[in-house]
Amino acid sequence: MGDSGVVVSPVEPPNAHRNAFILIGLGGATIAAFGLAAIAGVFAPFFLGVVLTICVHPLRVWLEKRGVPRGIATAAVIIAVLALLLALGYALLVAFGQFGALLHEFSAEIAAFGQDVAAWLSSIGIGADEIDDAAANFDPAALLGFFGGLIGGITGVFSLLVIVFTMLLLMGMDAAFVPTLLRQLYPARPLVVASLVTYGSNVRRYMVATAGLGVAQGVLNWIALIILGVPGAFIWGLLAFICSFIPNVGYFIALIPPIVFGALVGGWPTVIAVIIVYAVINGVIQSVIQPRVIGKAVNLSQTITFFSVLFWAVVIGPIGAILAIPLTLLVRLILVDSNPAMGWIRPMLGELDEAKAVMAQFDAEAKAERIARKGGKPGGVSEASGKAPPLSSDEPSPVP
After folding, report:
1. Based on C-alpha coordinates, what's the Rg of the chain?
2. What whole-number distance in Å separates Cα of residue 208 and Cα of residue 215?
3. How far apart, in whole angstroms, are the C-alpha atoms of residue 139 and residue 46?
4. H or E element that contains 186
């Protein structure tokens, strides 16, 4: 830094082909995205099987440490996971049936509500003719097909279950060799092995913690909606659990249906109560408890997290929004964590510990400067001397 206060950046090594490499990388990423979209029906359940295998791996290790044969441990793990999947599938089928009955019961009210919204939009001059036509042709029963497709995309129906079961069976058997293979690979590729182990640990912590907190979130929302008298409380509690795996966006998706049905039965007081209850329950769980439980398992910035949800939902469908974090961490593993030359980009992705420390130092220096300008206060400029106290030798000089 010169006398003028301008920070002089160090000269980077020249790279005559830098722009070409960037364009090649973007082109390769585009081709990869289109390729994944083309095989989304296979890739989505395959990766779900990978994530589930990673999550249940500690159970296998725990059983084997207690003398259970590998074959029996593998079978126990697969049965446990399939039991959870079948329980979730059964709950979704029950919720879907209840949702169909709910639509049939409130079809007239939903149609009237849609017409009221259309009339309000028309009153403020937003496409009156088109809105009136849409309101006239609105059929609440059409929502059943829409949500049926959505739930089918999330659970994958029978084809997804078959692929997931096959992947769990095969990867469950192969996972027994993974620790030994990693030990053999470590001398030749220590960074790759460390990155793979870290990835598995982070995905496991994120998915297990999110699932546990999602259950708590769904149950609390279910009880609260029953107390408020909102129809379909079980459906919306289950929806809250599923949407807890969708960062940033999931809260709003889970909030809309109970608001609509709350408005139909209780009007604005129920709507306000639902918003407050959801804000308190989901805000405390997702903003206070979840970060403390997950810790540094997901070192991704909020912007990247939000974009990853949108990106993976477009590429591989609704299940991509649920698996957005594990998929993004996998991309980070391939491009950054296993590449020693890419360590410089970590802070830009979300590892902000050092940046927060630097910001805290800058804030403290700015505060000291403000106090110094006022004069006559501790740590500031003395009115008598007109000079600030000198910095100690080990204290960094402030950057303007």
Report:
1. 27
2. 11
3. 37
4. none
